[in-house]
Give the backbone structure.
Amino acid sequence: MINSALIPVGGIGSRMRSIGKLPKLLLPIGPTTLLGLCILRLKLAGITDFYFTTKDDCMEVNSYISNFCSDLSINKVLLKETVLGGNFGGIVENIDVLPDEFVVAYPDVVTNLDFRLLFLWHQSAQADITFVVRKSDHLHDSDQISLDSLNRINSLYSKEIKNVVNSAGECNLYGNCGIYIIKKPLIINVISSLRISTGEVDLFSILSRYLLKSKIFLSAFTSADFILDVGTPERYMSLLEKVEASGLDSFFNRNYNKMLLLDRDGTLIKSVSNGYLYDATEVVLNPQILDAYKSLTESNFIPVVLTNQPQISFGKLTYAALDSIHSRIQRLLVHAGLKEIYRFIHCPHHPHSGHKNELNHLKFKCICRKPSTGMFSALKQTVNIDTANSIMVGDTINDESFAKAIGSKYYDINNISVLEF
């Protein structure tokens, strides 16, 4: 399990000066501060060793760290940034004294993320670096990550490289949340390969350059939890409103989410005449679902698609085509003024052989093809779910049996009008 954390505290926070003279990280949130909340949540998640990258002119913040950690008997190490800047410079400059693996968390990124789920995901993925990502409503000022249909990272887009971000042209992008787990050997290899010695060091920019030379095992943890980058006075005020409404305990108690689980073909989108969808241009949203979808997602249900896609095992549908279909669905939802799907989870398997050009390694009786519950188990790896109050909408007996097996409510798309919302 991860037991070390690095917290960068050397930023200026110039956009927050209109609030007052306090450094941004010492702004109050309930009885503590942004920085104090970050430390407390990581400690609750099992972190025992804390490293802080800071600067000599951050005396007020440095003094706060020393006193706060002393009062809680927390092991802390203050590391100075003197030569390198940017969001990764302090890590590169102090690599010799950092542990072999650690989580990086920015104190101005406030979240009720379940760090234990993140740590388990990272261990299972055996990745060099795992980013926490989410669907974001301000991608323009976020580093962006493109995921494929297997939830693998396709591409990284740095917000520092404006032309790359603006020309990405992909609908199914996720915003980087400023929380990640990284292994020390990767950092050493990047430093050596790219000969980093001076200047501003941006993590996404250097990883993009390094990926041109070497392979990195990148992993993405798609979060459905509350995550707010408190980078502007407006966002800070919205955070205070949330704390006033929900209390600070909401950041320390495990958060269970209500999910809107959707079958795809015949439920979220119209079925095609030949039974199987292969072409993204044939995607049409199913008008039967739209009112319920809008109401439930506006009531904080998180939309997830769980779909059997046996045509992959038939050798008739590629993963690239599946990505195109799901990107098309996202675009149609956005165009209709609806929230995007949080995750598409699919089963590519089929138990029966006999198709020309079929993929034999996908031909077996799996645990993920509905009505089996493997896709729900995959979802639970990144989300704590309030199963009893979640809703499954489908159009077949398999969907109904699936909902019964996991213990959620079920509504048939043809009788969706009985759903009260």
Q: What stands out?
A: Confidence is low (pLDDT under 50) at residues 163-169. The CA atoms of residues 217 and 258 lie 32 Å apart.
